[in-house]
Amino acid sequence: MTPRELLLGSFKAAVAAADPLQIVPPHLPPAPKGRTLVIGAGKAAAAMALAVEQHWPADAPLSGTVITRYGHGLPVKRLAVVEAGHPVPDAAGETAAHAIFEAVKQLSKDDLLLALVSGGGSSLLSLPAASISMADLKAVTQSLLHCGAAIQEINTVRKHLSLIQGGRLAAACAAEIRALVISDVTGDDPTHIASGPCAPDPTTYADALDILARYACTVPPAVLTTLQRGARGEIGETPKPGDKIFARTENRVIATAQQSLRAAAEYFECNGVHAVVLGDSVTGEAREIAALHAALAREVKTRGLPWQPPLALISGGECTVTVKGRGRGGRCAEFLLALTKELNGASGIHALAADTDGIDGSEDNAGVITAPDTLARAQALGVGAALRLADNDGYGFFAALDDLVVTGPTRTNVNDYRVILITA
Description:
The chain is of the alpha/beta class. The chain has helices spanning 3-16, 20-23, 45-55, 91-105, 121-124, 134-147, 151-159, 168-171, 205-214, 221-231, 257-270, 286-303, 331-343, 374-380, 385-390, 394-400; strands at residues 36-41, 62-69, 80-84, 112-118, 176-182, 249-255, 274-279, 284-285, 311-317, 319-320, 349-355, 367-370, 404-405, 416-422. The chain has two domains: 3-11 and 258-422, glycerate kinase, domain 1 (3-Layer(aba) Sandwich), CATH 3.40.1480; 20-255, 3-Layer(aba) Sandwich (Rossmann fold), CATH 3.40.50.10180. β1 (36-41), α3 and β2 (62-69) form a beta-alpha-beta unit. It is globular, with a radius of gyration of 22 Å.
């Protein structure tokens, strides 16, 4: 098997470990005395809804709506799937979120709310606070995405501009709640996944203001006013840990990046390559993380330390990219272009970086792949790695070499997958 085939096969194994059709059914609760309302938001929402339909008793009441990203829908019969904007929210998501919120408020103590939560839900389940508009929410989201803020920081702000996130959905529900959660964040805390609609929120309005100040984000006046009023106590805070409303709520994390990384490691081991999982919480600026990974890979290749090749170095987590150029590409392409530049054609080192949801940033590829001859091939085509990196154009660089990894929507999401394969 070639290095390229090994890398692509390991990515498929990582994605398969988080397939909603396989992981949702074991966690479904029994049907309640009353009715069951299914709601959901995220890139995995449609597949999770389909899994519920396939395993829910035919004679038990079942209804509801889930929201997923455009192009991520699936045909369902008993439930409804709405497609909406991601990573920037839009009117379709707002309309569906409003309908979900109203339906949840109608439930009684004999009913069940089954919430299907996955990464991407923060923008998809968007119901702005009364004092701000969808245009305001779009503007602050775009600003945070471009400034290099971590997803937990972005969600801290979004929770405090929402009627439904940060545990507020749970607060509006009189029924028992089971939230099935596919984690796309480091630490796997439900409060950070889709901005925790059913989870207690330890953050505050003051925290949100601090984040905007730290990154010098330019936001609409209504956003700033809302957060300032909240910090002064003029607007109620999100429900906090220990609040009695969560006594009837269970947030159950059913898939994590760590599980997918282990599945990829097992794939390599079965193919005769020792695998080391560096962790599922490798975060930071993509270029800086790439430099550290490149140094480790060279040490393994040249000195056999701290492990002997053949070796696969596997990591997950979410890098950040401070956008200064005008090119195309997500954080996986940025990481791998920086890694390629750092390795400078070192022999025997191949790598792949891809997002398990099938979409790197806002592009049409899951990720990219590199090999020892990548820089030489790029130079022959007149494609400069340094210039493309300065322009944040990882997509353009790898597209020119036909080294994009294109899968289409995987309808799951357990964050980024990175692997460096060092041959003997």
